[in-house]
Design goal:
Radius of gyration: 20 Å
CATH superfamily of the largest domain: Probable inorganic polyphosphate/atp-NAD kinase, domain 2
Number of helices: 5
Number of strands: 16
Distance between the termini: 31 Å
Order of helices and strands: EHEEHEEHEEEEEHEEEEEEH
CATH architecture of the largest domain: Sandwich
Helix content: 10-25%
Bound molecules: nicotinamide-adenine-dinucleotide
Number of domains: 2
CATH class of the largest domain: Mainly Beta
Structural class: alpha+beta
Length: 268
């Protein structure tokens, strides 16, 4: 089996990375940063997101696992003390896999420019540095509302505990193949009206955002990555056909992870 390791880059993470690499090579596994079967991220959720974006072109062949060197992460849920146990489990192979849904995002520019396509593990958000975001939101080609406000966040189920949660969105179990549209400070008064509640869309319900003031530039985030886009014609969001595969070596159910992350963590 071939593996790669992504470290956060601090001293503690680099030391753990070196230990894991040495142990796994002693167990006859091969280090291959180009075509790994297993990617081990060492750091925090941010490191895990970077690992996902580095290898998201080969999701069918690569599984992921996260070790945290700071506080308990949502994706980085193994503690450094568990490394020996984890190495033995990895060396035993084959391992079980758990799949979670992803967000498929396409940004269409005006005048037939280059179309940008992304997969997000957590979410995308659409904002602007120039006043309010004003856009038409449609679902399955039906106009739903004209949104005015700071922006919108469209998240995956596993991303529902990240930015989405801070915006008042619901926490969605990753067995529900869905995306969630959450408002960021919408303007609601006698003149302007939005639904005001998060919307949870099932697979195949494409959500389309069409800017009204198309001369504005948009700040579009995809997980930890932010880009500035001019001349945006439309942004399409849907449940991706691809999924992320987590290597599963022990049970740590989603609701237990939510509890330990947000209610009380007796693991660290
Ligand atoms: P960061 O360093 O600002 O980390 C943000 C926090 O989000 C970290 O504590 C991380 O552990 C946590 N996090 C990441 N994914 C999570 C998930 N799925 N469930 C629960 N917590 C999660 O930024 P970063 O490390 O570059 O991570 C980018 C992520 O930060 C974005 O995908 C977004 O979800 C999140 N974010 C959150 C807020 C907010 O809560 N107000 C604002 C902006 C971005």
């Amino acid at each position: 089996m071939k593996f790669a390791i992504k470290s956060k880059g601090d001293e503690k993470s680099n030391q753990i990375r070196a230990r894991i690499e040495q142990y796994l090579i002693e167990f006859d596994l091969i280090y291959d940063s180009e075509e790994p079967d297993l990617v081990i991220s060492v750091g925090g959720d941010g490191t895990f997101l970077e690992a996902f974006h580095t290898y998201n072109h080969r999701l069918r062949d690569t599984a992921f696992i996260g070790i945290h060197t700071g506080h308990l992460g949502f994706y980085a849920d193994w503690v450094p003390d568990e490394i020996e146990k984890l190495i033995i489990e990895i060396a035993k192979k084959p391992f079980q896999v758990v799949e979670y849904p992803l967000l498929d995002l396409t940004i269409y520019p005006k005048n037939g420019g280059k179309v940008d396509h992304f997969l997000a593990l957590n979410e995308c958000s659409v904002k602007t540095a120039e006043g309010s975001v004003v856009l038409d939101l449609s679902i399955k080609d039906e106009h739903f509302e004209r949104f005015r406000g700071d922006g919108l966040c469209i998240s995956t189920p596993s991303g529902s505990t990240a930015y989405n949660k801070a915006l008042g969105g619901g926490i969605i179990h990753p067995s529900l193949e869905s995306i969630q549209v959450t408002e960021i400070a919408s303007i609601n008064n006698r003149v302007f009206r939005t639904i005001g509640s998060p919307l949870i869309l099932p697979k195949h319900h494409v959500c389309k955002l069409e800017p009204i003031h198309d001369e504005r530039s948009f700040l579009i985030t995809v997980d930890h990555i932010t880009g500035t886009y001019n001349n945006v014609d439309a942004i399409e969001c849907k449940v991706a056909s691809e999924k992320i595969r987590f290597a599963r070596f022990r049970s740590f159910p989603f609701w237990k992870r939510v509890h330990d992350s947000f209610v009380s963590d007796d693991r660290t």
